[in-house]
Amino acid sequence: MKKILLVLLLSLFTFTFSSCKKYTEEVIYTRRNIAGGPSYIVSGSKFEDITLVSGVIVILDIHNDLPVARIDDYGFMNAVSLESVKIPDTVWNIGTRAFYNSFLKQCIIPEDSSLNTIDSEAFAYTFVEKIYLPNELYEIGNNAFAFTRLEEVFIPKSVKRMGEDVFLGVRGLTIHIEEGTDMSRWHEDWNSDGHEVILEATRQ
Predict the structure, then answer these.
(1) CATH code, 73
(2) What's the domain range around 98?
């Protein structure tokens, strides 16, 4: 009886370990010729339930000796088990609805990120509470962070374009904007909910 129980436990452990590995590694990489030459985009997962076991997506910065440059439109939309993702510093664009309506809670963007654009509704209807917007960021699209759980956000002066209703439906949000930011090409309704805005000399 003990021997049978041990075999069953070992089988369960092996299945769980292999499942975790499978769901964190089986990301779809598609080769494309985009700005700067050939690179890869991340276009989702090979599984319907993207992170059924671990809740973590592992995205490489280099795949087949080429940089991973973009998270594709709708890549992880409706990923109900997705909880955490780290965006490699090579990624310069997060596409439209890339994480829309997922259960994403943590999005890690490194300080030396090349991220240039966050497209419309990229993080809308997620559970993200905080996010780092790097100093290379140029554009944030319509509703990019609508109905998230952001509490505070710092917008660097590199952001020259801001869409409409970027933070729509976010409760209790405080927006910190770097002094000297040129807002002339920001949509007039970028802050349509009238969140508190504080000008900051430097990132706190």
Answers:
(1) 3.80.10.10
(2) 2-200
